[in-house]
Amino acid sequence: MKKIILCLLIMLSLNATAKLFAQQNGGGQQRMQAMRAYLKDSVNLSDAMADSVMAIRMQYQPQMRDIYRDQSATDADKQTKMQSLRTEMEARYKAAGLTDAQIQQMREHDNRMRAQMRSRMNGGGR
């Protein structure tokens, strides 16, 4: 009887862990879909332009993550490096055909998203 209960507990915990893992990995996909919808609906980009912007963002995302995770860098160094990457991204957006107004709109959106993330990380979302 104890073995059956133990097996059931193990199966339930594995199931809960699998669901949690799926939610975490699915969150990235949901954020990408939400960003693509934002680009099409709010920034008024065509499908091809939205795909170009998403490809540019995906190319720079690992570099930005590395900067964010670099514990040897000061916050000021991280901000400087991040701003440099953002400037490069915006130059690529312009080369892809986005207008200055569209780039500004995306910049403002990114700033709002960063502020929300900071708020959640500092306990503001609880």
Radius of gyration: 20 Å
Order of SSEs, N→C? HHHH
Number of separate strands: 0
First-residue to last-residue Cα separation: 41 Å
Figure out the total of helices: 4
Mean pLDDT: 85
Largest sheet: none
- Count of individual domains: 1
Helix percentage = over 70%
Bin the strand percentage: under 5%
pLDDT < 50 stretches: none
Structural class: mainly alpha
The quaternary organization reads as single chain
Polypeptide structure, described:
This protein has 126 residues and is an all-alpha fold. It has one domain. It has 4 helices and no strands. It has helices spanning 2-41, 47-69, 75-95, 100-121. It is elongated and about 70 Å long. The protein starts with a helix and ends in a 5-residue tail after the last helix. Residues 1-18 form the signal peptide. This is DUF4890 domain-containing protein.
Keywords:
DUF4890 domain-containing protein; mainly alpha; signal
